[in-house]
Amino acid sequence: MPTTDSTAPAPALRLVLAEDSLLLREGLVRLFDEAGYNTVAAYGDADQLLSEVDTVRPDLAVLDVRMPPTFRDEGVRAAIELRRRQPGIGILLLSQYVEGSYAHELLSSGSGGMGYLLKDRVASLDELQDAVARVSAGGTVLDPQVVRELLARRSDPLDALTPREREVLELMAEGRTNAGIAERLFIGVGAVEKNVTSIFQKLQLDDSGSDHRRVLAVLAFLQR
Q1: Rounded to an integer, what distance in angstroms lies between the CA atom of residue 200 and that of residue 144?
Q2: I need a surface site. Which of 1, 56, 67, 78 has the fewest CB within 10 A?
Q3: SS3 category, 95
Q4: Continuous segment of H or E residues that includes residue 14
Q5: Exposed e or buried b for every residue in 62-86, given b needs 16+ CB within 10 A?
Q6: Spatial contact of 60 and 89, defined as CB atoms under 8 Å apart
Q7: pLDDT (tens digit per residue) in 53-93
């Protein structure tokens, strides 16, 4: 009788890429290939991506924030439109600048994995692979510099937090799980859970138990 090979590898993650710089676009495709992902299409602007994305049906879209014709927020607008068409698609935004409002806008646009990284960060294959894996699994990845800027903008409401709670909050906003925070800070998961509970109590935010909603709540508080 024929047998089924239960150890067969899972299909490669299907990516689409929109980046106006030809050199960076080709470099990213090579990095994705090296990481074992399948780049099904790569475009020089957001309009091209949107015109074909319903046909190629990717698992995740990687977009530059600023692209032709205005080089302002074309990537963000395209990401929000992608979410409207395909609610479960993962979104990874890349930017040369820290633009925290874009992270908040995309997080507010719906469910699904979301990432926002500075382009300097994607020079590392490990960093890029970690971000893609977490976003494709429905998680949230925010560049630490974006998180720090958001915290600096509205520091007064955070005065009630202890130094440890601030550290935990920054890592929460990056999309880290409690276990990931514990590993980063060299403390127990139980200690992280106590800090998280205290943070939400002090900031008067409900802990929904969802990593995505936790980050969205933190960003919403920092933005208001």
Answers
A1: 20
A2: 1
A3: strand
A4: strand 14-18
A5: bbbbbbeeeeebbbbbbbbebbeeb
A6: yes
A7: 999 999 999 999 999 888 888 998 899 899 889 888 999 99
